[in-house]
C-alpha cells in the first residue's frame, strides 16, 4: 500500500477510536451547590449560588425543596416548601435549574392533592405524563374572546340578579361564616349538568373545613369532574403561597384542551396573609396594613389567567371565583378593594341577612356582575330588570315599616311583593335549582302571582310550582336553554300553568259568617262576665 493511502487509513481508524472513547466516557454535569446561612420560620438564607434565577427551585437535604425568592448578589432568600426542622446552617443546597411545576391532566380529576402534586386522599401517587410550570403568563388580549356563555350556579339570586359568564372573575366576599364557601360548593355541584370541570383550591383552611367540603363533593358525585388542591392552616406559608398558582395551571391545562373550567380560590385572604408573612420574614419593605407593595400584582397576575379563549385556540374558558373574608363588614379594607378592582364583579354576603335567616345571604344592593349580564340567558334578562328594581324599592321602603308608619295601599303592595321576592330567593345549601324551574318562579314573581299567597305558605307554593314545570310543553322548555326569547304565547302558557299550580295556596275569601259569630261570642261572653260580676 502506498504511504499516502496508509496514512489516511491510519487517521480514520484513529478518529473512530476517539469517537468511541468519547461516547463511552460519562459526561460530567456541573452541580452548583451552596450553603445554608440561616433557617427561620418558613424561609432559609443561602449563599454560594451565584447563578440561581428568580423563582428557581433549590433542593435541600432530605428532599426538601424551596423557591429562590430574594436573589441578591451574595445571599439568596429561599421560601421553604416542606418540613424543615432537620435543616441547619452549613447544610448543602443544590440548584435544580428548573422552576416550580405541577402534574396536570385528566388523571387528576377526582383527586385531592397538595400544590406539589402529592396525593392527600390515600389513593396512591398521581400518575400523569404532563407537567406545567405553576407561574405562566396569562393569555394575550388577542387570544381572548368575549364572555358570552353563562355559568349557571343553580342559585336563584345569583343566576337572576348577579349572573356569571364563563371566563369571568367574580369575587365572593363577606365576613366569616356568612356562607361564602357554600356558594362556591353549590356552584361546583351545579356544573354536573353543564360539563364544566372544576378545581377547588382550599388555601390555608382548617382541616375540618376542607374535609367537610371534600366529603360534600364526594357525596354529591361532584368529585368525578373536580380536582381539589389543598393547603391547610399549619402547612408552611410557602406552600400556601404557591397553592392558587398550581391550581390555576391544573385548570389551564383543561382550558387549553378546549374545556370549560371553574376554579374556586377559598380564600385569597389566607393567601395574602401567607405572602405578607413571607415578605416580612425576607425583610421586604412593608406597605399598607404591612402587606408588601406587590400584593396587588400577585393577585392580578393570578386572576388575569382566567379568560375565555378564541375558537381557533379551542374555545375553552376558565371562570374564577376568588373568595375574600372581610372584617366587620369593611369592604373598603386593602385586600378587598384590591380584589374588587381586579375582578369583574362581586357577590357580597351580609351578616345581617345571615342572622335574619335570608340564605344565601347575598346583599343584592352591594353585589354586581360587570360582564355576566351579556352572557345571561335571554329569558332571565326579560324579568331580571323589573325584579331588581322591585327588590331595591322594597328594601328601601322596608326600613320605614320598622317605625310602625301607616302605609298607603301602593306602598303596602310593594312591601308585600318584596317580601315574596326575598322569600323566593332563599335557598337551602346543596340544592341547586335547574334553569326551567328558576325561570318559571321568576316569571310568576314578575307577574305578581305569588302576591296572593300567604308568606308562611310560600315554600309549599314554590315546590308546587317547581313540580308543575313538567307540564310545560317540551318545545317551550327548550327555548329556555337555547337563549331564545319567549313569545307572548309561551309566556301565557307558562303563566297559565303557574296560576293553576298556585291556585290552592290562595287564602280562602273569608265568609262574613265566620267573623260574626266571633263578635257575638265576644259580646255574649262580655255580657256573661258582666252578669257574673
Ligand atoms: N343557603 C344556606 N342554607 C342553609 N345554611 C347555609 C347556607 N349557606 C351557608 N349555610 C351555613 O352557614 C354556615 C357558614 O357557611 P360557610 O362555611 O359556607 O361560610 P364561610 O363564610 O365560607 O365560612 P368561613 O368564614 O369559615 O370560611 C355553615 O354552617 C353552612 O352550613
From TrEMBL:
One of its GO terms (molecular function) is proton-transporting ATP synthase activity, rotational mechanism. The keyword Manganese does not apply. Pfam families: ATP-synt_ab, ATP-synt_ab_C, ATP-synt_ab_N. GO terms for cellular component: proton-transporting ATP synthase complex. Residues 513-533 are annotated as: Disordered. Residues 31-97 form the ATPase F1/V1/A1 complex alpha/beta subunit N-terminal domain. Residues 154-369 form the ATPase F1/V1/A1 complex alpha/beta subunit nucleotide-binding domain. Residues 517-533 have a biased composition (Basic and acidic residues). It is found in: Membrane. Residues 376-500 form the ATP synthase alpha subunit C-terminal domain. Its main location: membrane. Keywords: ATP synthesis, ATP-binding, CF(1), Hydrogen ion transport, Ion transport, Membrane, Nucleotide-binding, Transport. InterPro entries: Alt_ATP_synth_F1_asu, ATP_synth_asu-like_sf, ATP_synth_asu_C, ATP_synth_asu_C_sf, ATP_synth_F1_a_nt-bd_dom, ATP_synth_F1_asu, ATPase_a/bsu_AS, ATPase_F1/V1/A1_a/bsu_N. Belongs to the ATPase alpha/beta chains family. This is Alternate F1F0 ATPase, F1 subunit alpha.
Amino acid at each position: 500500500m502506498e504511504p499516502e493511502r496508509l496514512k489516511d487509513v491510519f487517521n480514520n481508524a484513529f478518529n473512530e477510536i476517539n469517537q468511541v472513547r468519547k461516547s463511552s466516557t460519562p459526561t460530567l454535569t456541573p452541580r452548583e451547590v451552596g450553603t445554608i446561612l440561616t433557617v427561620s420560620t418558613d424561609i432559609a438564607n443561602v449563599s454560594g449560588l451565584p447563578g440561581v434565577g428568580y423563582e428557581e427551585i433549590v433542593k435541600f437535604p432530605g428532599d426538601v425543596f424551596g423557591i429562590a425568592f430574594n436573589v441578591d448578589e451574595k445571599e439568596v432568600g429561599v421560601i421553604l416548601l416542606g418540613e424543615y426542622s432537620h435543616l441547619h446552617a452549613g447544610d448543602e443546597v443544590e440548584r435544580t435549574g428548573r422552576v416550580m411545576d405541577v402534574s396536570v391532566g385528566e388523571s387528576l380529576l377526582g383527586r385531592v392533592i397538595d400544590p406539589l402534586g402529592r396525593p392527600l386522599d390515600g389513593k396512591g401517587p398521581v400518575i400523569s405524563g404532563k407537567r406545567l410550570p405553576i407561574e405562566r403568563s396569562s393569555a394575550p388580549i388577542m387570544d381572548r374572546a368575549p364572555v358570552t356563555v353563562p355559568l349557571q350556579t343553580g342559585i336563584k339570586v345569583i343566576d337572576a340578579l348577579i349572573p356569571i359568564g364563563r371566563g369571568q372573575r367574580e369575587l365572593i366576599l363577606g365576613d366569616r361564616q356568612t356562607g361564602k364557601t357554600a356558594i362556591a360548593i353549590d356552584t361546583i355541584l351545579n356544573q354536573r349538568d353543564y360539563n364544566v370541570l372544576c378545581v377547588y383550591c382550599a388555601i390555608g383552611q382548617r382541616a375540618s373545613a376542607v374535609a367537610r367540603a371534600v366529603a360534600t363533593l364526594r357525596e354529591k358525585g361532584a368529585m368525578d369532574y373536580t380536582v381539589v388542591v389543598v393547603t391547610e392552616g399549619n402547612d408552611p406559608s410557602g406552600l400556601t403561597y404557591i397553592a392558587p398558582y398550581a391550581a390555576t395551571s391544573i385548570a389551564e391545562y383543561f382550558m387549553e384542551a378546549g374545556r370549560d373550567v371553574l376554579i374556586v380560590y377559598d380564600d385569597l385572604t389566607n393567601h395574602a396573609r401567607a405572602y405578607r408573612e413571607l415578605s416580612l420574614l425576607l425583610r421586604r419593605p412593608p406597605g399598607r396594613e404591612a402587606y408588601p407593595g406587590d400584593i396587588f400584582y400577585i393577585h392580578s397576575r393570578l386572576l388575569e389567567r382566567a379568560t375565555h379563549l378564541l375558537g381557533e385556540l379551542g374555545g375553552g374558558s376558565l371562570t374564577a371565583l376568588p373568595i375574600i373574608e372581610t372584617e366587620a363588614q369593611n369592604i373598603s379594607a386593602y385586600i378587598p378593594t384590591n380584589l374588587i378592582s381586579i375582578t369583574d364583579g362581586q357577590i357580597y354576603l351580609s351578616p345581617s341577612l345571615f342572622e335574619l335567616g335570608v340564605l344565601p345571604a347575598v346583599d343584592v344592593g352591594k353585589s354586581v356582575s360587570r360582564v355576566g349580564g351579556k352572557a345571561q340567558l335571554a329569558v332571565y334578562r326579560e324579568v331580571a330588570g323589573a325584579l331588581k328594581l322591585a327588590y331595591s324599592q322594597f328594601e328601601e321602603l322596608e326600613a320605614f315599616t320598622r317605625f310602625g308608619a301607616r302605609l298607603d295601599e301602593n306602598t303596602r303592595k310593594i312591601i308585600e311583593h318584596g317580601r315574596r321576592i326575598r322569600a323566593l330567593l332563599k335557598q337551602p345549601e346543596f340544592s341547586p335549582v335547574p334553569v326551567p324551574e328558576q325561570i318559571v318562579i321568576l316569571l310568576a314573581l314578575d307577574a305578581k302571582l305569588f302576591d296572593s299567597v300567604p308568606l308562611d305558605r310560600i315554600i309549599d307554593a314554590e315546590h308546587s310550582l317547581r313540580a308543575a314545570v313538567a307540564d310545560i310543553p317540551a318545545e317551550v322548555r327548550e327555548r329556555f336553554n337555547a337563549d331564545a326569547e319567549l313569545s307572548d304565547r309561551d309566556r301565557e302558557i307558562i303563566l297559565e300553568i303557574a296560576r293553576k299550580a298556585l291556585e290552592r295556596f290562595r287564602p280562602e275569601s273569608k265568609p262574613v259568617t265566620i267573623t260574626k259569630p266571633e263578635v257575638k261570642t265576644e259580646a255574649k261572653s262580655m255580657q256573661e262576665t258582666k252578669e257574673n260580676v
